[in-house]
Amino acid sequence: MIHRSILFATLILPLAACGSKPTVNEKNASVEEVSQKVSEATKAEGFIRPGKWQSTVNIEQMTMPGMPPQAAEQMKKMMAQTQTTETCLTPEEAKQPRAKFFGGNDQCRYDHFKMGHGKIDAEMHCTQNGSTQVMEMNGTYSGEAYTMQMTSTMEGGQSAANVSMKIKVDAKRVGECTAKES
């Protein structure tokens, strides 16, 4: 689930780049319901600007109580690495997002998902294989860029480890997609 948080950051956040006029304010909603509401709210303007988006993910902090010293050192090295990805969004994907675009799965629910006026605020709970993960996201967006702070905590599961992370994502639209990327 740790990697899902990072994947979630790089997939959900390009959707926040839509115009600031449409708003979405959902509570106790599934990933599918949020996807549908965002699509409905942004239909007139288009979901987001299609094209190539570049996201930079920085894991600012990760804690795992009881982690062996060697593993903790490896985590610190991993956290020091910035992960940059590029995503090509077609016009079709920009107008009608699939639910998986918003991260999570059918075992996840948003306590709240607020998007509008250049801001996004969301909290999601996921349960899977005896573990519970809570993700909180806060940030700002425009049609060309966004910045998002995320926190993720996970408890229980097969390893019975408690993990918490703070992640920052910065992204920007860097141009059009090439024919090869589309």
UniProtKB/TrEMBL annotation:
Which Pfam families does the record match to this protein?
DUF3617 (PF12276)
- Highest taxon, organism lineage: Bacteria
| InterPro entries found in the cross-reference section | DUF3617
This one is known as: DUF3617 domain-containing protein
Species name: Sphingomonas anseongensis
From which lineage does this chain's organism come?
Bacteria, Pseudomonadati, Pseudomonadota, Alphaproteobacteria, Sphingomonadales
